Automatic annotation (TrEMBL):
UniProt-listed SUPFAM superfamilies: Acetyl-CoA synthetase-like (SSF56801), ACP-like (SSF47336)
Native source organism of the sequence: Thanatephorus cucumeris (strain AG1-IB / isolate 7/3/14)
The protein's name in its UniProt record: Carrier domain-containing protein
Signal peptide extent: none
Pfam families: AMP-binding (PF00501), AMP-binding_C_3 (PF23562), PP-binding (PF00550)
Domain of life: Eukaryota
Domain Carrier per the UniProt entry, residue ranges: 521-606
Biological classification of the source: Eukaryota, Fungi, Dikarya, Basidiomycota, Agaricomycotina
Keywords assigned by UniProt, alphabetized: Phosphopantetheine, Phosphoprotein
Length: 655
């Protein structure tokens, strides 16, 4: 939570103070102001971090990353780490202050993808560590890098105490040793590198130049929010299924109703969920942006809440709309570089001007021409409910290598996981006629699905239960060119797809792979059972007290773990144990992210059927208490051309 106070001095937004110098600016102008309040959810303790502490930590990290300044300014440095948020911030800013270009890499990226990112950007120095999972990745990555003849030096991640020795030590004496001054930066100098998810093939590095950092991010409409007087903003990276969970909780909806605005982005929010929130008086709105070009839509309140699924583009960007001449009257969205907006990547020209093709498809509001709604991707990319993205092409291509498969069409938009329609070759259609034949067909196809899973991000993986065989009496539609129109195919099998997902929710057969605990009253037994289940999902040993999401779990494996738990509870002969299945959901996995916490909760639920689980109410109470304690006077920054914003705003982004 960011905390500021009156008399706070803001750095200029014209690029004269680049991110690498921001710490020095605040050390001079705002040393005793609060940068952050670290809140410990275990004991409710709070630790303040001032800008002075932050600056000292950044300089300390700069010396660690570039001892004596021997590494030339502008050299890339990768970060493959799992650590505290505050340390991550310090290390990234420390790299900038050391004159290096930080390149944070997601540990969820597959090994060939990480190797590709490092080699394509010539990043030969990488800070790594923070978890056993990272250590395992580094070991395997070293072998992959040697195969492509690209040596990389891995540096151990410093401990939090090394970077912020004064964090829990009030008596610590500052020993500030400033890092040497850096050469001035030009507008096209690279500030940092990010990368795409790799859902459309290999992940792509995106280089952030200084001019773009300010024009595409700082001075775009999202930056205007922070310039409003008496505005409180909460910015959280949360998948949109949190909105789905909140919409089912009266306490959560009541709290959200108090907000002036709730914004979400990064992936689609199911129409039924958005409409339900709007019907209950929640001011929810879409926002849109991308790594390649920043945030580009207005954030002002809309006149009609029913337009929550549409966006209005900022006057600071130059969007162009390329008609697709389809029945939906959709357009591909393209951004042309302008004086006020400089996309980080340019991949085409329009009217002789450099531009970026997003491959996102939009449709215009039927009555309000300045509002646009996103309806899909040119490359048929599937955006899951949690914002994760899957490009079906490579996986479908692997599945159709099976001799009995004629065509494969993946799906999963606005769902927790993917599935696939499989059309058999005409010679194999007889297998469809009996249940035994269909099972035989699935078994013959499955090795090819496994190969597709191995070459794809974990959130894209298919399960046997998500394979749907196409009925020969209802063949997939064809275009005049003989291809399968994806939207028409999914429409034809919409009922079958819905039935498949309902069967998944019923958890039928999900518990068979792992034997149930010997006793539901023994935390040790339940803990061992959950550990076995998680190990089978992640294919590695897990720390029972460590955060599962830092050990490799993602939204898909969390869904699979939930199904295993619920199906095993349902299968118990004891009514209290069966009842526990109705009291847990996906939010439970995220709210109790360790094996031990989950085990303790399940034992408690099994012993007492009257026990209720309400993590949202508890979280809201903590948030409210924090706001009340630290809601003092807020600063005002003078920025021209500000847009009117409300008194409260929450921005939810998926990454």
């Amino acid at each position: 939570m960011i905390a500021t106070s009156t008399n706070f001095v803001f750095p200029p937004t014209d690029g004269s103070v680049p991110p690498s110098s921001a710490a020095d600016f605040h050390l001079i102008h705002n040393p005793k102001r609060l940068f952050a309040i670290l809140y410990d959810v275990n004991d409710s303790s709070q630790t303040n971090v001032t800008y002075e502490q932050l600056a000292h930590a950044i300089h300390r990290a700069a010396h660690m990353l570039n001892p004596n300044g021997t590494i030339p300014q502008g050299t890339n440095i990768g970060f493959l780490v799992s650590t505290h948020t505050i340390e991550y911030i310090v290390m990234i800013l420390g790299a900038m202050r050391a004159g290096l270009v930080p390149f944070p890499i997601s540990p969820r990226t597959h090994l060939p993808g990480i190797a590709h990112l490092l080699k394509s950007t010539q990043t030969s120095l990488v800070v790594a560590g923070g978890s056993q999972t990272i250590d395992g990745i580094v070991s395997q990555l070293s072998s992959s890098l040697s195969e492509i003849d690209f040596p990389v030096q891995f540096v151990d991640l410093p401990s939090l105490d090394q970077v912020l020795p004064d964090l829990n030590n009030a008596d610590y004496q500052f020993d500030h040793k400033p890092f040497s001054p850096l050469k001035p930066m030009a507008g096209d100098d690279i500030v940092n590198i990010l990368h795409s998810s790799g859902s459309t093939g290999m992940p792509r590095p995106v280089k952030f130049h200084l001019e773009g950092v300010f024009k595409n991010i700082v001075t775009q409409p999202f930056g205007w929010i922070y310039a409003q007087d008496e505005v409180r903003v909460g910015t959280m990276a949360l998948p949109t299924f949190h909105a789905m969970m909140w919409s089912q909780e009266e306490a959560a909806v009541a709290y959200l109703r108090q907000m002036k605005g709730i914004m979400f982005g990064g992936g689609p929010l199911a129409g039924a969920i958005g409409n339900k929130l709007v019907d209950q008086g929640v001011h929810i709105h879409s926002c849109y942006g991308a790594t390649e070009f920043g945030g580009v839509n207005e954030v002002s309140d809309m006149d009609d809440l029913s337009d929550w699924g549409y966006v209005k583009f900022s006057s600071h960007v130059d969007p162009r709309f390329v008609p697709q001449n389809d029945e939906d009257h959709s357009f591909e969205l393209v951004f042309v570089a302008s004086d006020d907006h400089k996309p980080f990547e340019l991949n085409c020209e329009i009217d002789g001007k450099p531009a970026y093709r997003t491959k996102d498809l939009v449709v215009r509001h039927p009555f309000k021409p300045d509002l646009w709604k996103f309806v899909g991707r040119l490359d048929d990319q599937i955006i899951l409910l949690n914002g994760e993205k899957t490009n079906p092409g490579p996986m479908e291509g692997e599945i159709v290598k099976c001799p009995i498969v004629h065509y494969a069409v993946m799906f999963g938009r606005e769902r927790n996981q993917t599935g696939v329609l499989i059309e058999l070759e005409e010679s194999a259609n007889n297998l469809y006629k009996t249940e035994e034949g269909r099972s035989k067909a699935i078994e013959e196809i499955w090795p090819f699905v496994e190969r597709a899973n191995q070459t794809s991000p974990t959130h894209s993986r298919l399960e046997k239960q998500t394979l749907i065989l196409v009925d020969p009496a209802r063949p997939l539609p064809r275009t005049p060119k003989g291809t399968i129109p994806r939207s028409a195919a999914l429409k034809l099998y919409a009922h079958d797809i819905e039935e498949m997902y309902l069967d998944l929710e019923k958890d039928s057969g999900a518990a068979g792979a792992v034997d149930p605990p010997q006793s539901w009253e023994s935390t040790e037994d339940v803990e061992a059972w959950i550990s076995r289940g998680v190990q089978s999902l992640l294919d590695r040993d897990v720390d029972v007290v460590g955060d599962l999401f830092q050990q490799g779990m993602d939204s898909l494996t969390a869904t699979m773990l939930l199904r295993m738990i619920k199906s095993t509870l349902h299968a118990s002969p004891h009514p209290d144990v069966q009842s526990a299945a109705t009291k847990i959901n996906q939010q439970t996995i995220f709210g109790k992210p360790t094996v031990r916490q989950l085990a303790q909760l399940l034992v408690q639920l099994s012993k007492n059927s009257d026990t209720t689980v309400d993590p949202i109410t508890e979280a809201l109470q903590n948030i409210t208490a924090m706001i009340q304690k630290y809601d003092t006077n807020w600063p005002r920054q003078e920025i021209s051309n500000t847009r009117q914003a409300g008194s409260d705003l929450i921005c939810l982004h998926n990454y």
